């Protein structure tokens, strides 16, 4: 059985009591502090691949990922220092280097984590002048459209398909900015079409073809 003894942790000068082993990102949420993240989801195992949730933890020499770091007795966490904010800006800058500026026509527009974090952490101009990498639009099925140009490589869709649905229909292919989400078949996606990959995507990389251009996510 996991150790659930209560421990006291201080997050941005707020001291709260949570069960031992609670992840920093969840403890912060209980304290009313939102730590930006892409890859973390409470229904999935921690993956810590997006590096967006970096925070300062007292007596630790480097920034820690809040989605994979459990709290301990007396832990002091800071989520909004200059160092942390600079880390958030750097992560977003790399993500936006290849992200298309198509928010007005993206079905996730208005309910997009990347859109929200960009408004909060990044400047209005980019230092990148290189040509953006381009992926062609593809279809997982008659119901699901995939636009990898919008993908932030959080792998939520892959992990949901694996951990929650136990289907393993999706997998990442390639490395770095050329990573794509594939289904390894020449025919349509081999799954139950639960739509979980659409719902769990934090951006507009995987969308429903049924509702495309018909209404916004918050109208559902």
Describe this structure in words.
A hairpin with a 2-residue loop joins strand 1 and strand 2. The protein contains 5 helices and 10 strands; from the N terminus they run ββαβββααββαββαβ. 30% of the residues are buried. Helices cover 20% and strands 16% of the residues. It has 2 domains: 6-89, Roll (Ubiquitin-like (UB roll)), CATH 3.10.20; 132-219, Alpha-Beta Plaits (2-Layer Sandwich). The chain is α+β, with helices and mostly antiparallel strands. Helix 2 crosses helix 3 (113-121).
Strand and helix layout:
Elements: E1 6-11, E2 14-19, H1 24-30, E3 54-57, E4 64-65, E5 75-78, H2 82-96, H3 113-121, E6 138-139, E7 144-146, H4 156-164, E8 171-173, E9 180-182, H5 196-200, E10 206-208
Parallel strand pairs: 1-5
Antiparallel strand pairs: 1-2, 3-4, 3-5, 6-7, 7-10, 8-9
Helix pairs in contact: 2-3
Order of strands, widest sheet? 2-1-5-3-4
The beta-strand count equals 10
CATH class of the largest domain: Alpha Beta
Radius of gyration: 19 Å
Kindly name the structural category.
Answer: alpha+beta
Total tally of structural domains:
2
Q: Could you name the ranges where pLDDT drops below 50 across 5 or more consecutive residues?
A: none
CATH fold-level assignment of the largest domain: Alpha-Beta Plaits
Tell me the overall shape: globular
Q: What's the mean pLDDT score?
A: 88
CATH architecture of the largest domain: 2-Layer Sandwich
Give me the strand/helix succession. EEHEEEHHEEHEEHE
Number of helices: 5
Distance between termini? 40 Å
